[in-house]
Amino acid sequence: MDKEAPRVVRVNALRIEQRKDVPLVVFGVNGRMIHQFASVHFAQRVEDGELAGYQRERVSRHIAAIHAYLQQEGALLPNAIVIAFNKTVAFTPLSNQLRSEWGTFGTLSIPLSGPRETKPGFIVDGQQRVAALSELEPSRPFPVVVVGFCSDAPSVQREQFVLVNRTKPLPKDLLNELLPHIDAHLPDNLRLRRVAAAILEVLRFDKNSPFCGRIRGLGSIGDGCNISQAAIVGLIERSIKHGGVLATCSGNSYEDTDIEGAANVVSTFFQGVSSVWPEAWLGSPRNSRLVHGAGIYAMGCLMDRVMRDVNLTSERSVESVKGRLLIVQRRCAWTSGQWPRLNCAWNEIQNTSQDKRRLAAYLVSEYDKLAR
Hints:
- The protein is of the alpha+beta class.
- Helices cover 36% and strands 16% of the residues.
- Helix 6 packs across helix 8, helix 8 packs across helix 11 and helix 10 packs parallel to helix 12.
């Protein structure tokens, strides 16, 4: 007996070619059906820290609010759902090759899938709307506009997800997870962030890095994962942008940055940090200002000063860093006591711009004074 032919929904569509390798299709469909041919690819870390997916988690409250609105008479949902389709979705031009100045009219054939089957589409934008639409009663059809693009490449899907959500900012940690895996040209405000996020990724998953298992994010679990991604990304961005030690790794443009080399600079410095202040390094931001946002900022400024004098090709580079940091070891109050010259207790240092600058200026000044 032959296997049952897969169910297919056919819709009238307009194909538009902005890029020949990634054609676009625009069509209307009952919103309740979308979950039958498109799924959500949640961002997660799999084996060896490899990134899979790109979507944020469901927001139940948001979905409930959309659902309540869609049940009302006169509800309007003009925003298009954006879906990335694989090659099982086929576009057939009209037989008379009817075209407009914008594209080609035809029929789009989309295979429908069961709950446990792989779907031909991934939702790039509109996951909360699709979830709300799927919960409507069968007696409540709700047509929506869908813009699809045909690409199996995860990098293209992530690229569109990030760019579509520029007006609705993504959580910063999720943005940091995605940016290193986007190959396309990005807006200026994201180019440096992509470099910093790529360096962050090396620091997080290199087993020889002092940050391995310490930075919060996808795939990081346990109480020890308590260092902020934002703090490390900020440290990297400042050093590159303002002529710090990492600027020597960036070449003529951000795209030329030696990611591994920059990660080695940061890793070597903080290996020295963890050796000089082991207890403070293993603490949490609540009981150690060393791994607090203010401490990371200040140590980043000190890194720019210390690492200019360290030979990274030497087998004793970490010992060299350690020897330099010992100069200021007793001038720090990471977990108890008072900060000399700052006139405050160890835990009065807060994650504010003023306190971060004060602590950084103090550490660099003490180092310069005692290293003479």
